[in-house]
Amino acid sequence: MPVRVDAASFAPVLPVLLDLFGVVAPVFVVAGIGFGWVKLGGRFDHDATSRMVLQIGVPAMVFHSLVRLTVPADVLLHMAGLATAAMAGFALLGYGLLRTLKLPAHTYLGPLVFSNSGNVGLPVCLFAFGERGLALAMAYFAVSSTAHVVLGGPLFAGKFSLEPLVRSPLTWTVVLTVLLLWLRVPIPEWVLKSTKLLGDFAIPLMLLTLGASLSTMHASSLGRALVLSCARLLIGATVGLGLCAALGVTGLTRKVLVLESAMPVGVLNYLFAQRYARSPGQVAGVVLVSTLMSVLSIPALLYLLER
């Protein structure tokens, strides 16, 4: 007997699906422009653009957002603590999986732990949850990016150093901002406008850089890339949901934590793998496949979180 689809039963879901598409579409449209630009022969300076985003755009965006907080400081600190616990969970489950699959941790643990909470996570949380969601997402991103800078390189290299943390403009931006807020120092309007202007270019350039970076990658060892991509998304969502259930986290904090936890593999993992000669082609495949999968996984997760 042929299966009949009841159009009337599907109709109420359609507006929700369109709304979810509207949330994630701008992210992938802008990334797609960066991808197409490079594929069509356009020049893109990955190093200069990435440095400009990480050393100017993101610190300015973090400073402006924190000094104009609409989210209580204790809520942001709570999110930072949850992000730390989440990454510890990613590391434990990821290491166990790699031992089972007999894959080297120095090459594949980074991709399972450090997700794309910046290039993809920040704009998705902004479009889905507004400025309050973005503030919470930046608290997660601050922990994630700091951990990635401090631990990501040493993990691939096999040696540890605090130098990247000390040299990171984001570290000093957070320290300075917290100090100014604690001392209740009034911020001049021209500083607020300048940092807003500089911060506004961070997300578009992040997405253009993501697309441009993906255009140079190839999904080598597709089977392994699929397994590890699924693992990154599933481990992220499982740990995020598990933490919320165990600690009684609800509301917007729960939505942002779960969504950020389930982001695809961060592009910086590929750069570390390339720098330290840890199978960069294979890591690139995981980055590429997980990002493509997130086109479907992010709307699906948003739908579940909103129910």
What is the CATH architecture assignment? Up-down Bundle
* Domain count: 1
- State the share of residues found in helices, binned by percent: over 70%
Residue-averaged pLDDT: 83
Low-confidence parts: 1-13
Question: Structural class, judged by helices and strands?
Answer: mainly alpha
Largest sheet, if any? Answer: none
Strand content is under 5%
CATH topology: Na+/H+ antiporter like fold
SSE order: HHHHHHHHHHHHHH
Task: Describe it.
By secondary structure, the chain is an all-alpha fold. It has one domain: Up-down Bundle (Na+/H+ antiporter like fold). Helix content is 79%, strand content 0%. It is built from 14 helices and no strands. Helix 3 runs parallel beside helix 8 (169-183). The radius of gyration is 19 Å and the shape is globular. It starts with 6 loop residues before the first helix and ends with a helix. The relative contact order is 0.17. Residues 1-13 have low confidence and may be disordered.
